[in-house]
Amino acid sequence: VSTQSTGSSGINAEYGGVPRIKEIVNAANNIATPIITAPLEDATSIDSARIVKGRIEKTLLGEISEYIEEVFLPQDCYIFVKLHVQRIKMLKLEINAHSVMKSIIKNSKVKLTTSDVRINSASSLAVYPPSGSKSKQSSESLYTLIQQIKKILPNIVVKGNTYC
Fold first, then answer.
1. What's residue 110's pLDDT?
2. Residue 70 clears pLDDT 70, i.e. is over it
3. C-alpha to C-alpha distances, 46 to 34, 40, 68, 79, nearest whole angstrom
4. Would you list the DSSP string of the chain?
5. CB count, 10 Å around CB of 121?
6. What residues pair up with 73 in beta bridges, in sequence order?
7. Per the count of CB atoms within 10 A, which of 29, 38, 95, 111 is most buried?
8. Contact between 9 and 163 (Cβ < 8 Å)
9. How many CB atoms lie within 10 A of CB 63?
10. Cα separation of 49 and 118, whole Å?
């Protein structure tokens, strides 16, 4: 298993990979960007490799969701997240509805609490606008808020290193 870091968390992510690309294109003998090679105890086990990869490599909610859709009812509105259970199992990711809920709450862009994210089943969650926003906002601004949350959700890191 190999993974690579740009070397400095201060580097703009948009340009962080350019030095590595130059090294690859120029077939550099001396690689400047750090690479970690960690041999597996069982080099023939694909399952072990997938488990390690899943723990290291960044996995986004959008990559392990069947769909993320808005639900508008007369007295309620939320975003329904359906997890792709077969994909999660195939990739040997240690992800479930509870860990996804924690990742959503931990994300600073959505500013949600435990009362805003509800687990419906082992493979689905409902994400509500932040507590109190229903009574304080018009239906138009509530619609906009749902749209903003829906746009952020697929990019939330649910497993692995945020910087990989």
1. 87
2. yes
3. 25, 10, 30, 35
4. -EEE--S-TTS-TTTTTHHHHHHHHTT-SS--S-EEE---SSTT-HHHHHHHHHHHS-EEGGGSEEEEEEEEETTEEEEEEEE-HHHHHHTT----HHHHHHHHHH-TTT---TTTEEEEETTEEEEPPPTTHHHHS-HHHHHHHHHHHHHHGGG-EEES-TT-
5. 9
6. 76
7. 95
8. yes
9. 16
10. 32
Instruction: Identify whether the C-beta of residue 48 lies closer than 8 Å to the C-beta of residue 41.
Output: yes
Taking CA atoms, 155 is separated from 44, 49, 56, 63, 137, in Å, by 32, 24, 17, 9, 26
List, for residues 18-34, the tens digit of each pLDDT value. Answer: 666 776 677 767 766 66
